[in-house]
Amino acid sequence: MSEPLLFINARLVDCDTDTSGALLVRDGKIAAVYHDLHPAQVEHPEARVIDCGGATLMPAFVDMHAHFRDPGFTYKEDLESGSRAAAAGGFATVVLMPNTNPVISDRAASLAVRARASGAEFPDIFQSVSLTRGFGGTDTSALVDLDPSETPIATEDGHEVASAAVMLDAMRICAKTGVLVCCHCEDPSLAERARELRTAALADPGNSAALYTKAERLLRLAEDTLTYRNLALAEEAGCRVHIDHLSTIGSLAAVRAAKQRRSGVSCEVTPHHLALTAESPEIVNPPLRHEEDRMALIRGLSDGTIDAIATDHAPHTAEDKQAGAPGFSGIQAAFPVCNTVLVKAGHLSLSALSRLMSANPARLLGLDRGRLSEGLDADLVLLDPDKTVTIDPSSESWHSRGKNCPYAGKEYRGEILATFRRGQRIFVF
């Protein structure tokens, strides 16, 4: 049994609440929530008191989409370094993608990763499983053994199931098990042609802008066509489907239309697609889009079409990035970036941001957390939403092994002070 904790003098914020008050944690659960009460009115002598000093107490964030590169690519990131970065970013739950070496393709491999990350110092780590064994595009048999309480997500992330018939088979299995099918929507043939253009751009700096533009247009088409396909297949299969890192106006429209037809449709957007545009030189997949796409995504967050913000944390070495590897480290910077471009810019309230980073992803994963409510897991983050911070991947406070980050050297608003998983502190500033 863990020591009871009493948080006092806090601004309590979740998807439904924004008020001053106090919160009691007992045995890893939220035992009581006190709104608009003076600390003297809250008496729990058995509890250790944490005076928040007016700081904001929120449900810890839930990341549905991250890469810790373990096993096989631990020189980029491993479970320990990725977990430290996540906790420093305010995340107490992280779902890892299966594009490791070997590919995580069955229940046993998934649970083995989860077991290695089961220490008290770790966030709650879930390991997703590939839709086809080894990303081979044919064998879906391992999906029948999955339990969504252990492995909530199946995905071919970083790839795509080229065969619509195989994807339909996978979705039908997941419809029976209840596992959420997450789709990296990218037509493989169009993506391959785009990669050829990217490679040509690296070899021809004088013509790189034109080549990158052509590649981006192909990747936009690759995303839109597979989004439509996968939504249609999911409707036929009757499974829950989630569109990963949605980035275009066309894909957003497809999700909006699908949600009008049926339940069980959801999607996510990344902080970098909300904060950056194609004017940035960063290589990421899907690529950064144009300002009209960015604003459409923000409107999609506001009207509820987009359900969650997920980081797609994808660390690489400097050598990888120089060779054109897509992705970068971002989990530790996710909150200040989103708080700045969404809340401080006047698009969303802090409560709405909590819904997108905590309550909704927890709901989609079937987890009892993500809100400040009695009986839920005491996964909490203490933060200052007004503090200006400068993102510095070279500093000792940056915990990811991946030092490439598009926010480096930029100022944002929002500082993580402490993160708790089931009442146990896993990060303190």
Can you describe what's shown?
This protein is α/β, with parallel strands linked by helices and 429 residues long. The protein folds into two domains: 5-57 and 379-402 and 415-428, Urease, subunit C, domain 1 (Roll); 60-365, TIM Barrel (Alpha-Beta Barrel). The protein contains eleven helices and 16 strands. The longest helix is centred in the middle third of the chain and has 30 residues, at 208-237.
Give the N-terminus to C-terminus distance in angstroms: 25 Å
Low-pLDDT residue spans: none
Total domain units: 2
Helix count, DSSP H or I runs of 4 or more residues:
11
Secondary-structure content class: alpha/beta
| Strand tally | 16
**Could you estimate the helical fraction of the residues in percent?**
25-40%
Name the CATH class of the largest domain.
Alpha Beta
Content of β-strand: 15-25%
CATH topology of the largest domain: TIM Barrel
Q: What characteristic shape results from the CA principal axes?
A: globular
**Which architecture of the largest domain does the CATH hierarchy give at level 2?**
Alpha-Beta Barrel
> What is the average of the pLDDT values?
95
SSE pattern: EEEEEEHEHEEHEHHEHEHHEHHHEEE
Tell me the name of the CATH homologous superfamily of the largest domain: Metal-dependent hydrolases
Give the C-alpha Rg: 21 Å
Largest sheet: 8 strands, mixed
